[in-house]
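Input (Cell division protein FtsB):
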Amino acid sequence: MKWLLAILTVMLLVTQYRLWVGEDSLAEVTRLKRELTQQQEKNSALERANRQLLREVRSLKEGTDGVEAKARYDLGLIKEDETLFIFLDPEESKSD
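Output:
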């Protein structure tokens, strides 16, 4: 009877160790769930960025309006007979 009790006690300790500390423990499962949530948030942000880039690519492929807008914004395109006005913030000019 003592041997049976000893064996059951050892088995209980082994299962408790695996539950709390070992591989596939509750702490590890919780950590993995947290990492999964973080990765899903990152994936969602990347999917939004990809959709925005896809819209931009389609706009650039479909006509000249998208290309012109991109050139104006990124490269400072000015057409013939246009006048460029640059407005400075008074606060920024005082600090220079």
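Helices lie at 2-20, 26-62, 64-75, 90-95.
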